[in-house]
Amino acid sequence: MIYLNGQFMPLDQACVSVLDRGFIFGDGVYEVIPVYSRRPFRVVEHLHRLQHSLDGIRLKNPHTNNEWRQLIAQLIEQNPGEDQSVYLHITRGVAKRDHAFPDVPPTVFIMSSPLLPPSAELLENGVKAVTANDNRWVRCDIKSISLLPNVLLRQLATDAEASETILIRDGYLTEGSASNIFVVKNQVLLAPPKSHLMLPGITYDVTLELAASNSIIHEVREIAEDELFGAEEIMLTSSTREIMAITHLNGKAVGSGNPGPKFRQLHQLYQQYKATHMRGNPSAQ
Ligand code: PDD
């Protein structure tokens, strides 16, 4: 079941006009919210980021946070699976093709897919990544549905039989094509600072909070390209992939070529944190 413009319906009955500005211009924003044991994870933070994205494209939020929460809860209810990935998508609506903003209602679409945690094999071995020049626009803090640059960059990884493309802009690490990136250097966990050049990841925030509350030495600062290439560990974070170790970069082993101790510790802490969320800890809702 999906939700489209005020109605719940089966996915195969959902239709959107070919004049939708999402289809014509990629004029819209989205969110991906993980759901564990039927409870949306960090929903307040996701809705806050959605507001930031809507403000960034000058589109009025069609719903209050309470309305969003109710729609999300109803959609979770109508879909199978304890763990789901809820996708919210808002476009500037349907109008005759003209670049100027139209005065029409937005299109609101929500769907849910089963959320599968990374397999034991991936956790044991880590994943491969490649690097590329970050040639996206300079408002990467907006979660825009115009993902063509991200898709093209991600395909470089797929072509190299890797899982992610790590992006470098002007000699510094920004993020992955669909994830945030952490590096371990001299046993310190490093994260690039939030800016308009990266998406402020919700999993990134959780990871830094877990580091802070468990005395894992960490620093939020610019990470130069050579620090990435000489890293002891590299990891990615995202709502759908949680925390994963990157064990090969551009065909070379990262550190020992196996998931490192910081990854193992953070992964375990993340699983514990998820478990408290599933038991209903309000701070994790
Ligand atoms: N992507 N950076 C980019 C470019 C992303 O697309 C994502 C997530 C992240 C991680 O953000 P978060 O931890 O809030 O999921 C960082 C989602 C999952 C997607 O597009 O499917």
Short description:
With 285 residues, this protein is of the alpha+beta class.
The assigned CATH architecture of the largest domain is Alpha-Beta Barrel
Structural class: alpha+beta
Low-confidence stretches: none
Strand content: 25-35%
Helix proportion of residues, in percent?
25-40%
The number of distinct structural domains comes to 2
User: What CATH first level of the largest domain would be assigned?
Assistant: Alpha Beta
The average pLDDT score comes to: 97
> In CATH terms, what is the fold-level topology of the largest domain?
D-amino Acid Aminotransferase, Chain A, domain 2
Radius of gyration: 19 Å
- Ions, cofactors, ligands: which are bound? N-(5'-phosphopyridoxyl)-D-alanine
- Give the N-to-C terminal Cα separation: 23 Å
Write the layout of secondary structure elements.
Elements (H helix, E strand, L loop, with lengths): L1 E3 L2 E3 L11 H5 L2 E9 L2 E2 L2 H14 L8 H13 L6 E8 L15 E8 L5 H6 L1 E7 L14 H12 L4 E6 L2 E5 L3 E6 L2 E4 L10 H12 L4 E3 L4 H5 L3 E6 L3 E8 L2 E2 L7 H18 L7
Parallel strand pairs: 7-8, 7-14, 11-12
Antiparallel strand pairs: 1-2, 1-6, 3-4, 3-5, 5-6, 8-9, 10-11, 10-13, 13-14, 14-15
Helix pairs in contact: 6-8
Bound molecules: N-(5'-phosphopyridoxyl)-D-alanine (PDD).
The site of N-(5'-phosphopyridoxyl)-D-alanine has 15 residues, from helix 6 and strand 13.
Explain this structure to me?
Helices cover about 30% and strands about 30% of the residues. The chain is an alpha+beta fold and about 280 residues long. It has 2 domains: about 1-115, D-amino Acid Aminotransferase, Chain A, domain 1 (2-Layer Sandwich); about 120-275, D-amino Acid Aminotransferase, Chain A, domain 2 (Alpha-Beta Barrel). It is globular and about 55 Å long. The protein starts with a strand and ends in a 7-residue tail after the last helix. The mean pLDDT is about 95. N-(5'-phosphopyridoxyl)-D-alanine binds near residues 199, 202, 239 and 240. N-(5'-phosphopyridoxyl)-D-alanine binds near residues 150, 178, 202 and 237.
